[in-house]
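Lab notebook page, bench 4
Experiment: in silico fold of construct C2
Operator: M.H.
Input chain length: 124 residues
Purpose: comparison with the prior construct
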Amino acid sequence: MSPPDPVQEFFSIGEVCELTDLKPHVLRYWESQFKFLNPAKNRSGNRVYQRREVELILLVKHLLYSEKYTIEGARQKIDEHRKNADLKSAARGALAVETLEALEADCRELLQQLDPTWSPDGRA
């Protein structure tokens, strides 16, 4: 039995964009709006995101896109989570929701490929 693959702890902006389905300019803008999103930079000046920052990005995405908060509202909600000491669990919850939504979209796409007459609303 081979040892498990090591868990990746640092991500480039390209990898974060792929993981979160966001554009680089969106991430850079959010960095200016959310002070806790402040990735380190390597010797070349490229952003290097830690795993916890990726989780926070997913939380911000969830608050803005799914919950329909404004940027100010998302800031307040995150501050609320911080004060209640449940920021990590909120970020993990957003990751779970994001994962389920992606799986659901993949399943719909697969069903459509298997049966072109299938539709998500149940009508053929």
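Observations: The radius of gyration is 18 Å. Residues 87-114 form the longest helix (28 residues).
Next step: discuss at group meeting.
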